[in-house]
Write a structure and sequence with these properties.
- Helix 8 links the parallel strand 1 and strand 2.
- It is built from eleven helices and two strands; from the N terminus they run H-H-H-H-H-H-H-E-H-E-H-H-H.
Length: 288
């Protein structure tokens, strides 16, 4: 809508723009900000589009004299940042360049704090019922400077994230190529069918339900082997039982041996007790 109305031109200065229209210079920056908040679209496309919005905002601010940042210099800085991310761990870092970048970020952070403090003061003045036009212009101009610093920070973050996403897409593409064809097969929708034990049953049930496919058990198994869902019969014969199956088969034998030994010991103890305690020894009063 702003472009359709042609509110801004490359041939005018900020003093020529009406006070009520200065705030519309923020439109590209806000579009970039809210574009980055999207989570339902491809991340690479999202940050690429947001970067275009932020750069368009910086171009407008440079055009109207709000900032003196050169976009060409900023592009070279971003490319150097991308190359550092890609070559991290393989080549020694440029300590001098990193130190300069650190100083620029510290200086930008300090300016951002000063701008935010000034915005708070101007905001309280703007909220009054009667506000001077110069106060409003100062408020909108300060707000634009704040978003200039925010846009630079966002562009730095995007420039570092872009090569990572490109690398992830490359790795994902390689994995898709090397993936076995059976794993990449799209899951087919389920269709009902009839399974019978013999060929005769197949003919009987198949005649009653002509719309449903009918298979014998052997035919159903052969189809599953061809699709890769079931192992072939020769693989089943040569496959070794797992450790869990071995423990399951060995466990009952050990348990039977323990029960037999326990019963034998109990019988021996009972015989020893009967030898030491003969029948009738405890009944001396009623002798019989």
């Amino acid at each position: 809508m702003v472009n359709d109305l042609s509110l801004f031109s490359d041939n005018e200065e900020l003093q020529e723009v009406a006070t009520s229209e200065i705030r519309y210079l923020l439109m590209p920056a806000l579009l970039g900000y809210f574009t980055l908040k999207r989570t339902t679209q491809d991340r690479y496309n999202v940050i690429t589009k947001a970067k275009v919005y932020y750069r368009d905002f910086l171009r407008l601010c440079k055009l109207y004299g709000i900032t003196q940042i050169e976009l060409a210099t900023e592009m070279e800085h971003n490319e150097n940042t991308d190359s550092r991310v890609i070559s991290a761990g393989r080549t020694p870092p440029d300590l001098l360049a990193m130190s300069n970048i650190r100083e620029q970020k510290i200086e930008r952070y300090k300016k951002q704090k000063q701008t935010e403090d000034k915005l708070k003061e101007l905001y309280s003045e703007v909220q009054k019922s009667h506000v001077d036009d110069e106060v409003k212009r100062d408020y909108y101009t300060t707000l634009l400077k704040k978003w200039v610093n925010t846009s630079l920070d966002e562009i730095d973050s995007i420039s570092m994230e872009l090569p990572i996403l490109e690398h992830m897409a490359k790795v994902k593409g390689q994995n898709k190529v090397t993936q076995p064809p059976g794993k990449d097969r799209q899951k087919q929708p389920f269709h009902p069918f009839i399974i019978t034990k013999t060929q005769l049953q197949k003919q009987v049930f198949g005649a009653g339900y002509p719309g449903l496919p009918t298979y014998t058990v052997e035919e159903f198994y052969e189809n599953k082997v061809k699709e890769g869902d079931f192992p072939a019969p020769d693989q089943c014969l040569h496959s070794k039982p797992s450790n869990q199956e071995q423990t399951k088969t060995e466990a009952p034998e050990d348990q039977d041996e323990e029960e037999t030994a326990e019963a034998l010991q109990k019988a021996r103890d009972w015989d020893d007790w009967k030898d030491d305690h003969r029948r009738g020894w405890g009944n001396r009063q009623n002798m019989g």
